[in-house]
Prior knowledge:
The chain is an alpha+beta fold. It folds into two domains: 1-121, Immunoglobulin-like (Sandwich); 122-457, Purple Acid Phosphatase, chain A, domain 2 (4-Layer Sandwich). Helices cover 18% and strands 30% of the residues. The protein has helices at residues 2-17, 143-151, 174-187, 202-211, 223-227, 265-283, 317-320, 337-343; strands spanning 25-28, 35-42, 54-58, 68-71, 73-79, 82-91, 99-106, 109-110, 114-117, 128-132, 135-136, 157-160, 164-165, 192-194, 240-244, 247-251, 290-294, 322-324, 333-335, 348-351, 357-360, 363-364, 367-368, 385-389, 408-412, 416-424, 427-434, 440-448. A hairpin with a 2-residue loop joins strand 7 and strand 8 (109-110). Helix 2 packs parallel to helix 3 (174-187). The radius of gyration is 22 Å and the shape is globular. The site of fe (ii) ion has 6 residues, from loops.
Amino acid sequence: MKSLxxxxxxxxxxxxxxxxxxxxHLSLGTNETEMIVxxxxxxxxxxxxxxxxxxxxxxxxxxxxxLQSSIAEMESFKDLxxxxxxxxxxxxxxxxxxxxxxxxxxxxxxxxxxEFKTLPIGxxxxxxxxxxxxxxxxxxxxxxYLKKDVEQNLxxxxxxxxxxxxxxxxxxxxxxxxxxxxxEPIASKVPYMTCPGNHEEFNNxxxxxxxxxxIGDRFDNNDHLMQNISLNKRLNNHYHxxxxxxxHIIMFSTEYYYYTEYGWQQIEQQYRWLEMDLKRxxxxxxxxxWIIVMGHRPLYCLKMGDDSCDHHTMERKEIRQxxxxxxxxxxxxxxxxxxxxxxxGVDIQFYGHxxxxxxxxxxxxxxxxxxxxxxxxxxxxxxxxxITTGSAGNLEFHPPFNQLKNWVSCHFLDYGYTRxxxxxxxxxxxxQISDDQNGEILxxxxxxxxxxxxxxxL
Length: 458
Ligand SMILES: [Fe+2]
Protein backbone atom coordinates (compact mmCIF):
# COMPACT_ATOMS: atom_id res chain seq x y z
CA MET A 1 0.00 0.00 0.00
CA LYS A 2 2.78 2.36 1.01
CA SER A 3 4.74 1.67 -2.19
CA LEU A 4 1.59 2.23 -4.25
CA UNK A 5 1.13 5.64 -2.65
CA UNK A 6 4.74 6.51 -3.37
CA UNK A 7 4.32 5.52 -7.04
CA UNK A 8 1.13 7.62 -7.25
CA UNK A 9 2.90 10.59 -5.66
CA UNK A 10 5.85 10.27 -8.03
CA UNK A 11 3.54 10.06 -11.06
CA UNK A 12 1.67 13.20 -9.92
CA UNK A 13 4.97 15.04 -9.50
CA UNK A 14 6.18 13.87 -12.94
CA UNK A 15 2.87 14.88 -14.51
CA UNK A 16 3.09 18.32 -12.99
CA UNK A 17 6.72 19.11 -13.55
CA UNK A 18 8.00 17.16 -16.57
CA UNK A 19 5.35 17.49 -19.25
CA UNK A 20 6.19 18.45 -22.77
CA UNK A 21 3.20 20.33 -24.13
CA UNK A 22 3.18 19.10 -27.69
CA UNK A 23 1.13 18.20 -30.77
CA UNK A 24 -0.67 21.52 -30.49
CA HIS A 25 -3.19 22.18 -33.24
CA LEU A 26 -6.20 24.37 -34.00
CA SER A 27 -9.69 23.77 -35.35
CA LEU A 28 -12.62 26.09 -35.99
CA GLY A 29 -15.13 26.73 -33.23
CA THR A 30 -18.81 27.50 -33.68
CA ASN A 31 -18.16 30.79 -35.45
CA GLU A 32 -15.55 33.49 -36.05
CA THR A 33 -15.37 34.34 -32.33
CA GLU A 34 -14.19 30.86 -31.30
CA MET A 35 -11.17 28.62 -31.86
CA ILE A 36 -10.34 25.20 -30.41
CA VAL A 37 -6.82 24.30 -29.23
CA UNK A 38 -6.09 20.56 -28.94
CA UNK A 39 -2.94 18.83 -27.68
CA UNK A 40 -1.91 15.35 -26.57
CA UNK A 41 0.44 14.13 -23.86
CA UNK A 42 1.82 10.65 -24.76
CA UNK A 43 2.09 7.93 -22.12
CA UNK A 44 -0.13 9.85 -19.76
CA UNK A 45 -3.25 8.71 -17.99
CA UNK A 46 -5.54 11.71 -17.58
CA UNK A 47 -5.34 12.94 -13.99
CA UNK A 48 -8.33 11.77 -11.94
CA UNK A 49 -9.04 15.33 -10.90
CA UNK A 50 -9.58 17.96 -13.59
CA UNK A 51 -6.20 19.63 -13.80
CA UNK A 52 -6.01 23.29 -14.44
CA UNK A 53 -4.68 22.82 -17.94
CA UNK A 54 -5.38 26.23 -19.43
CA UNK A 55 -4.89 28.07 -22.68
CA UNK A 56 -4.11 31.76 -22.25
CA UNK A 57 -4.73 34.05 -25.20
CA UNK A 58 -4.32 37.71 -25.93
CA UNK A 59 -4.20 40.18 -28.78
CA UNK A 60 -0.99 41.47 -27.28
CA UNK A 61 2.22 39.45 -27.35
CA UNK A 62 4.00 40.94 -24.37
CA UNK A 63 1.47 42.29 -21.97
CA UNK A 64 -1.02 40.88 -19.51
CA UNK A 65 -3.60 43.37 -20.81
CA UNK A 66 -6.65 41.79 -22.48
CA LEU A 67 -5.46 38.37 -21.31
CA GLN A 68 -8.17 35.71 -21.54
CA SER A 69 -8.03 32.05 -20.60
CA SER A 70 -9.91 28.82 -21.16
CA ILE A 71 -9.77 25.64 -19.08
CA ALA A 72 -9.17 22.49 -21.15
CA GLU A 73 -11.27 19.36 -21.06
CA MET A 74 -9.42 16.06 -20.80
CA GLU A 75 -10.09 12.86 -22.71
CA SER A 76 -8.35 9.68 -21.69
CA PHE A 77 -7.31 7.29 -24.47
CA LYS A 78 -6.37 3.67 -23.91
CA ASP A 79 -5.95 0.93 -26.49
CA LEU A 80 -3.86 -2.18 -25.71
CA UNK A 81 -0.45 -0.83 -24.62
CA UNK A 82 -1.20 2.69 -25.84
CA UNK A 83 -2.32 5.40 -23.50
CA UNK A 84 -2.40 9.13 -23.79
CA UNK A 85 -4.42 12.10 -22.68
CA UNK A 86 -5.89 14.62 -25.11
CA UNK A 87 -6.72 18.14 -23.96
CA UNK A 88 -9.16 20.47 -25.69
CA UNK A 89 -9.83 24.11 -24.90
CA UNK A 90 -12.48 26.26 -26.56
CA UNK A 91 -11.29 29.86 -26.83
CA UNK A 92 -14.24 32.24 -27.02
CA UNK A 93 -15.06 35.96 -27.15
CA UNK A 94 -12.46 36.39 -29.88
CA UNK A 95 -12.51 39.40 -32.16
CA UNK A 96 -12.95 38.35 -35.82
CA UNK A 97 -10.12 39.02 -38.29
CA UNK A 98 -7.64 39.54 -35.47
CA UNK A 99 -4.26 38.03 -34.61
CA UNK A 100 -4.07 36.30 -31.24
CA UNK A 101 -1.09 34.96 -29.30
CA UNK A 102 -1.65 31.89 -27.14
CA UNK A 103 0.14 29.47 -24.88
CA UNK A 104 -0.71 26.53 -22.64
CA UNK A 105 -0.08 26.28 -18.91
CA UNK A 106 -0.41 22.89 -17.31
CA UNK A 107 0.91 22.20 -13.81
CA UNK A 108 4.23 24.00 -13.65
CA UNK A 109 4.71 23.68 -17.38
CA UNK A 110 4.27 26.35 -19.99
CA UNK A 111 4.37 25.97 -23.76
CA UNK A 112 5.97 28.27 -26.29
CA UNK A 113 3.84 31.16 -27.53
CA UNK A 114 1.89 30.43 -30.72
CA GLU A 115 -0.31 32.68 -32.82
CA PHE A 116 -3.32 32.47 -35.11
CA LYS A 117 -5.63 34.86 -36.90
CA THR A 118 -9.39 34.56 -36.50
CA LEU A 119 -11.51 34.47 -39.65
CA PRO A 120 -13.27 37.66 -40.73
CA ILE A 121 -16.99 37.77 -40.03
CA GLY A 122 -19.66 37.65 -42.75
CA UNK A 123 -19.48 36.69 -46.42
CA UNK A 124 -17.81 39.71 -48.00
CA UNK A 125 -14.25 38.41 -47.74
CA UNK A 126 -12.36 36.00 -49.99
CA UNK A 127 -11.06 32.82 -48.29
CA UNK A 128 -7.89 30.90 -49.24
CA UNK A 129 -7.48 27.20 -48.44
CA UNK A 130 -5.00 24.35 -48.67
CA UNK A 131 -6.71 21.04 -49.46
CA UNK A 132 -5.09 17.58 -49.59
CA UNK A 133 -5.39 13.99 -48.49
CA UNK A 134 -3.03 11.17 -47.66
CA UNK A 135 -0.22 12.90 -45.79
CA UNK A 136 1.93 10.50 -43.79
CA UNK A 137 4.72 10.78 -41.25
CA UNK A 138 7.23 9.09 -43.59
CA UNK A 139 7.73 10.67 -47.03
CA UNK A 140 5.69 13.77 -46.10
CA UNK A 141 6.73 15.48 -49.34
CA UNK A 142 4.28 18.40 -49.16
CA UNK A 143 5.05 19.49 -45.62
CA UNK A 144 8.03 21.80 -46.40
CA TYR A 145 5.94 23.59 -49.05
CA LEU A 146 2.90 23.83 -46.79
CA LYS A 147 5.13 25.29 -44.04
CA LYS A 148 6.48 27.86 -46.47
CA ASP A 149 2.96 28.79 -47.60
CA VAL A 150 1.78 29.12 -43.99
CA GLU A 151 4.78 31.32 -43.16
CA GLN A 152 3.78 33.51 -46.11
CA ASN A 153 0.23 33.66 -44.76
CA LEU A 154 -1.36 32.08 -47.85
CA UNK A 155 -4.10 30.10 -46.06
CA UNK A 156 -7.04 30.89 -43.81
CA UNK A 157 -7.89 27.20 -43.25
CA UNK A 158 -6.23 23.85 -44.10
CA UNK A 159 -8.36 20.81 -45.01
CA UNK A 160 -6.94 17.29 -44.72
CA UNK A 161 -9.39 14.88 -46.38
CA UNK A 162 -8.43 11.65 -44.63
CA UNK A 163 -5.47 9.27 -44.27
CA UNK A 164 -3.10 10.60 -41.65
CA UNK A 165 0.35 9.48 -40.48
CA UNK A 166 0.14 5.93 -41.95
CA UNK A 167 -1.14 5.21 -39.41
CA UNK A 168 -2.09 7.15 -36.29
CA UNK A 169 -2.19 3.83 -34.41
CA UNK A 170 1.10 2.39 -35.76
CA UNK A 171 4.07 1.71 -33.48
CA UNK A 172 1.86 1.76 -30.43
CA UNK A 173 0.56 5.20 -31.33
CA UNK A 174 4.01 6.75 -31.69
CA UNK A 175 3.52 7.16 -35.44
CA UNK A 176 0.48 9.28 -34.56
CA UNK A 177 2.43 11.29 -31.99
CA UNK A 178 5.27 11.89 -34.42
CA UNK A 179 2.89 12.89 -37.22
CA UNK A 180 1.03 15.34 -34.99
CA UNK A 181 4.40 16.82 -33.96
CA UNK A 182 5.45 17.31 -37.58
CA UNK A 183 2.26 19.12 -38.56
CA GLU A 184 2.33 21.35 -35.46
CA PRO A 185 4.14 24.24 -37.25
CA ILE A 186 1.21 24.58 -39.68
CA ALA A 187 -1.68 23.26 -37.56
CA SER A 188 -0.90 25.43 -34.53
CA LYS A 189 -1.16 28.52 -36.72
CA VAL A 190 -3.97 27.75 -39.18
CA PRO A 191 -7.17 25.80 -38.33
CA TYR A 192 -6.65 22.18 -39.43
CA MET A 193 -9.98 20.64 -40.48
CA THR A 194 -10.39 16.91 -41.07
CA CYS A 195 -12.52 13.96 -42.12
CA PRO A 196 -11.53 10.28 -41.84
CA GLY A 197 -9.99 7.95 -44.43
CA ASN A 198 -9.48 4.20 -44.53
CA HIS A 199 -6.14 4.50 -42.68
CA GLU A 200 -8.04 5.70 -39.61
CA GLU A 201 -10.24 2.58 -39.49
CA PHE A 202 -8.41 0.69 -36.70
CA ASN A 203 -10.58 0.03 -33.67
CA ASN A 204 -13.54 1.98 -35.05
CA UNK A 205 -11.59 5.15 -35.84
CA UNK A 206 -10.83 5.60 -32.15
CA UNK A 207 -7.28 6.89 -32.62
CA UNK A 208 -8.52 9.45 -35.15
CA UNK A 209 -11.38 10.51 -32.90
CA UNK A 210 -9.07 10.99 -29.96
CA UNK A 211 -6.76 13.39 -31.76
CA UNK A 212 -8.97 15.86 -33.62
CA UNK A 213 -11.75 18.24 -32.57
CA UNK A 214 -14.36 18.98 -35.22
CA ILE A 215 -17.51 20.68 -33.95
CA GLY A 216 -20.49 18.58 -35.02
CA ASP A 217 -23.31 20.91 -34.00
CA ARG A 218 -22.18 24.15 -35.59
CA PHE A 219 -25.62 24.90 -37.06
CA ASP A 220 -27.76 23.54 -34.25
CA ASN A 221 -29.25 26.24 -32.12
CA ASN A 222 -26.73 27.84 -29.85
CA ASP A 223 -28.52 26.84 -26.67
CA HIS A 224 -25.57 24.61 -25.85
CA LEU A 225 -23.76 27.74 -24.75
CA MET A 226 -26.46 28.28 -22.16
CA GLN A 227 -26.63 24.64 -21.21
CA ASN A 228 -22.88 24.36 -20.86
CA ILE A 229 -22.55 21.14 -22.83
CA SER A 230 -19.00 19.84 -22.70
CA LEU A 231 -16.87 20.43 -25.78
CA ASN A 232 -15.96 16.73 -25.98
CA LYS A 233 -19.66 15.89 -26.35
CA ARG A 234 -20.14 18.38 -29.19
CA LEU A 235 -17.55 16.78 -31.48
CA ASN A 236 -18.19 14.83 -34.64
CA ASN A 237 -14.93 14.16 -36.46
CA HIS A 238 -16.75 12.13 -39.15
CA TYR A 239 -19.20 14.64 -40.59
CA HIS A 240 -19.58 18.33 -39.95
CA UNK A 241 -20.08 21.55 -41.92
CA UNK A 242 -19.11 25.18 -41.73
CA UNK A 243 -19.58 28.55 -43.41
CA UNK A 244 -16.35 30.29 -44.31
CA UNK A 245 -17.00 33.64 -46.00
CA UNK A 246 -19.17 32.96 -49.09
CA UNK A 247 -18.52 29.17 -49.02
CA HIS A 248 -20.47 26.42 -47.26
CA ILE A 249 -18.17 23.43 -46.68
CA ILE A 250 -19.23 19.92 -45.73
CA MET A 251 -16.72 17.27 -44.62
CA PHE A 252 -18.10 13.74 -44.50
CA SER A 253 -17.12 10.09 -44.16
CA THR A 254 -16.93 7.81 -47.18
CA GLU A 255 -15.70 5.13 -44.78
CA TYR A 256 -19.10 4.33 -43.27
CA TYR A 257 -19.88 2.61 -46.61
CA TYR A 258 -16.85 0.32 -46.35
CA TYR A 259 -16.51 -0.50 -42.63
CA THR A 260 -20.08 -1.62 -42.02
CA GLU A 261 -18.94 -3.82 -39.12
CA TYR A 262 -19.06 -0.64 -37.05
CA GLY A 263 -22.76 -0.14 -37.80
CA TRP A 264 -24.92 0.02 -40.93
CA GLN A 265 -27.04 2.72 -39.31
CA GLN A 266 -24.19 5.23 -39.63
CA ILE A 267 -24.68 5.31 -43.40
CA GLU A 268 -28.31 6.35 -43.08
CA GLN A 269 -27.67 8.77 -40.22
CA GLN A 270 -24.99 10.59 -42.15
CA TYR A 271 -27.09 10.64 -45.34
CA ARG A 272 -30.06 12.19 -43.48
CA TRP A 273 -27.73 14.75 -41.94
CA LEU A 274 -26.17 15.53 -45.35
CA GLU A 275 -29.60 16.11 -46.89
CA MET A 276 -30.69 18.31 -43.99
CA ASP A 277 -27.47 20.32 -44.16
CA LEU A 278 -27.68 20.70 -47.95
CA LYS A 279 -31.30 21.88 -47.74
CA ARG A 280 -30.30 24.50 -45.20
CA UNK A 281 -27.28 25.50 -47.30
CA UNK A 282 -29.60 26.07 -50.28
CA UNK A 283 -31.92 28.21 -48.17
CA UNK A 284 -28.85 30.31 -47.27
CA UNK A 285 -27.46 30.33 -50.78
CA UNK A 286 -27.75 34.11 -51.12
CA UNK A 287 -25.27 34.32 -48.21
CA UNK A 288 -23.02 31.38 -49.18
CA UNK A 289 -23.38 30.89 -52.95
CA TRP A 290 -20.73 28.13 -53.08
CA ILE A 291 -21.25 24.63 -51.69
CA ILE A 292 -18.17 22.41 -51.48
CA VAL A 293 -18.02 18.85 -50.14
CA MET A 294 -14.91 16.98 -49.04
CA GLY A 295 -14.55 13.28 -48.36
CA HIS A 296 -11.85 10.64 -48.63
CA ARG A 297 -12.65 8.21 -51.47
CA PRO A 298 -13.59 9.71 -54.87
CA LEU A 299 -16.94 8.70 -56.42
CA TYR A 300 -15.22 8.29 -59.78
CA CYS A 301 -11.94 6.40 -59.58
CA LEU A 302 -8.78 6.20 -61.64
CA LYS A 303 -6.68 3.97 -59.41
CA MET A 304 -5.67 0.41 -60.27
CA GLY A 305 -5.73 -2.29 -57.65
CA ASP A 306 -8.27 -0.76 -55.28
CA ASP A 307 -10.98 -3.11 -54.03
CA SER A 308 -13.50 -0.30 -53.66
CA CYS A 309 -13.11 0.80 -57.30
CA ASP A 310 -15.03 -1.01 -60.04
CA HIS A 311 -12.31 -1.15 -62.68
CA HIS A 312 -14.81 -1.60 -65.49
CA THR A 313 -17.02 1.40 -64.81
CA MET A 314 -14.38 3.40 -62.88
CA GLU A 315 -16.67 4.30 -60.02
CA ARG A 316 -17.15 3.45 -56.38
CA LYS A 317 -20.65 2.11 -56.71
CA GLU A 318 -21.41 2.07 -52.98
CA ILE A 319 -20.88 5.78 -52.56
CA ARG A 320 -21.76 7.01 -56.08
CA GLN A 321 -24.94 4.99 -56.71
CA UNK A 322 -25.66 3.64 -53.22
CA UNK A 323 -25.08 0.56 -51.12
CA UNK A 324 -27.12 -2.64 -50.83
CA UNK A 325 -27.84 -2.52 -47.11
CA UNK A 326 -26.79 -5.56 -45.09
CA UNK A 327 -25.32 -6.98 -48.33
CA UNK A 328 -28.71 -8.30 -49.44
CA UNK A 329 -28.10 -8.96 -53.16
CA UNK A 330 -31.65 -8.12 -54.26
CA UNK A 331 -32.09 -4.99 -52.18
CA UNK A 332 -32.00 -1.62 -53.98
CA UNK A 333 -28.97 0.60 -53.78
CA UNK A 334 -29.52 3.26 -51.11
CA UNK A 335 -27.86 6.42 -49.86
CA UNK A 336 -25.90 7.13 -53.05
CA UNK A 337 -24.20 10.51 -53.00
CA UNK A 338 -23.93 11.59 -56.63
CA UNK A 339 -27.68 12.21 -57.01
CA UNK A 340 -27.81 13.97 -53.65
CA UNK A 341 -24.92 16.30 -54.44
CA UNK A 342 -26.27 17.04 -57.93
CA UNK A 343 -29.82 17.70 -56.67
CA UNK A 344 -28.63 20.20 -54.09
CA GLY A 345 -26.16 21.93 -56.40
CA VAL A 346 -22.80 21.05 -54.87
CA ASP A 347 -20.33 23.07 -56.91
CA ILE A 348 -17.05 21.28 -56.14
CA GLN A 349 -16.15 17.89 -54.62
CA PHE A 350 -12.65 17.24 -53.22
CA TYR A 351 -11.38 13.77 -52.44
CA GLY A 352 -8.09 12.00 -51.66
CA HIS A 353 -7.29 8.27 -51.28
CA UNK A 354 -5.79 7.88 -54.76
CA UNK A 355 -2.20 9.05 -54.45
CA UNK A 356 -2.13 11.46 -57.34
CA UNK A 357 -3.89 14.58 -58.62
CA UNK A 358 -6.79 14.25 -61.05
CA UNK A 359 -9.31 16.77 -62.37
CA UNK A 360 -12.50 15.69 -64.08
CA UNK A 361 -14.68 17.59 -66.51
CA UNK A 362 -17.92 18.77 -64.87
CA UNK A 363 -19.81 15.48 -64.68
CA UNK A 364 -23.04 13.84 -63.60
CA UNK A 365 -23.79 10.15 -64.18
CA UNK A 366 -20.91 9.82 -66.66
CA UNK A 367 -22.20 12.73 -68.76
CA UNK A 368 -19.76 15.56 -69.33
CA UNK A 369 -21.51 18.85 -68.59
CA UNK A 370 -19.10 21.59 -69.56
CA UNK A 371 -20.09 25.22 -69.26
CA UNK A 372 -21.22 26.87 -72.48
CA UNK A 373 -20.21 30.46 -71.71
CA UNK A 374 -16.69 30.10 -73.13
CA UNK A 375 -14.03 27.54 -74.01
CA UNK A 376 -13.42 27.08 -70.29
CA UNK A 377 -15.47 24.02 -69.15
CA UNK A 378 -15.59 25.45 -65.64
CA UNK A 379 -17.12 28.77 -66.76
CA UNK A 380 -20.71 28.26 -65.53
CA UNK A 381 -20.27 24.45 -65.37
CA UNK A 382 -23.45 22.43 -65.80
CA UNK A 383 -22.38 19.67 -63.43
CA UNK A 384 -20.28 19.28 -60.26
CA UNK A 385 -16.47 19.49 -60.46
CA UNK A 386 -14.53 16.54 -59.01
CA ILE A 387 -10.93 16.95 -57.87
CA THR A 388 -8.76 14.14 -56.47
CA THR A 389 -5.91 15.55 -54.41
CA GLY A 390 -4.38 12.57 -52.63
CA SER A 391 -0.71 13.16 -53.35
CA ALA A 392 0.50 15.04 -50.26
CA GLY A 393 3.06 12.27 -49.66
CA ASN A 394 3.24 9.07 -47.61
CA LEU A 395 5.05 5.75 -47.50
CA GLU A 396 2.75 4.04 -50.01
CA PHE A 397 4.01 6.05 -52.98
CA HIS A 398 1.95 6.43 -56.21
CA PRO A 399 -0.35 3.76 -57.73
CA PRO A 400 -0.74 3.15 -61.48
CA PHE A 401 -3.66 4.74 -63.35
CA ASN A 402 -6.36 2.63 -64.86
CA GLN A 403 -7.30 3.13 -68.49
CA LEU A 404 -8.45 6.71 -68.48
CA LYS A 405 -11.95 7.68 -69.50
CA ASN A 406 -12.80 10.73 -71.60
CA TRP A 407 -14.14 12.56 -68.55
CA VAL A 408 -10.67 12.78 -66.99
CA SER A 409 -9.42 16.26 -67.92
CA CYS A 410 -5.93 15.79 -66.52
CA HIS A 411 -3.97 13.69 -64.07
CA PHE A 412 -0.48 13.97 -62.60
CA LEU A 413 1.63 11.74 -60.37
CA ASP A 414 3.49 14.69 -58.82
CA TYR A 415 3.42 15.01 -55.07
CA GLY A 416 1.55 18.12 -54.02
CA TYR A 417 -1.57 19.78 -52.71
CA THR A 418 -4.37 22.07 -53.84
CA ARG A 419 -4.73 25.76 -53.21
CA UNK A 420 -8.23 27.24 -53.41
CA UNK A 421 -8.28 31.01 -53.82
CA UNK A 422 -11.44 33.07 -54.10
CA UNK A 423 -10.90 35.85 -56.60
CA UNK A 424 -14.32 37.39 -56.18
CA UNK A 425 -17.74 36.32 -54.95
CA UNK A 426 -18.45 34.30 -58.11
CA UNK A 427 -14.93 33.27 -59.11
CA UNK A 428 -12.87 30.48 -57.50
CA UNK A 429 -9.35 29.62 -58.67
CA UNK A 430 -7.89 26.17 -58.00
CA UNK A 431 -4.14 25.60 -58.27
CA GLN A 432 -2.37 22.29 -57.92
CA ILE A 433 1.09 22.75 -56.43
CA SER A 434 3.83 20.30 -57.41
CA ASP A 435 6.44 19.43 -54.78
CA ASP A 436 8.40 17.63 -57.50
CA GLN A 437 8.69 20.94 -59.36
CA ASN A 438 9.72 22.92 -56.27
CA GLY A 439 6.32 24.39 -55.52
CA GLU A 440 5.45 25.40 -59.08
CA ILE A 441 1.81 25.46 -60.19
CA LEU A 442 1.11 22.18 -61.99
CA UNK A 443 -2.50 22.85 -62.94
CA UNK A 444 -4.88 25.79 -62.61
CA UNK A 445 -8.57 26.25 -63.33
CA UNK A 446 -10.92 29.17 -62.90
CA UNK A 447 -14.51 28.43 -61.91
CA UNK A 448 -17.12 31.06 -62.66
CA UNK A 449 -20.80 31.49 -62.03
CA UNK A 450 -22.98 34.56 -61.86
CA UNK A 451 -25.78 33.55 -59.51
CA UNK A 452 -25.87 31.75 -56.17
CA UNK A 453 -27.25 28.54 -57.73
CA UNK A 454 -25.07 26.57 -60.13
CA UNK A 455 -26.06 26.57 -63.78
CA UNK A 456 -27.89 23.23 -63.69
CA UNK A 457 -30.30 24.45 -61.00
CA LEU A 458 -31.46 27.55 -62.87
FE1 LIG B 1 -7.16 6.08 -48.45
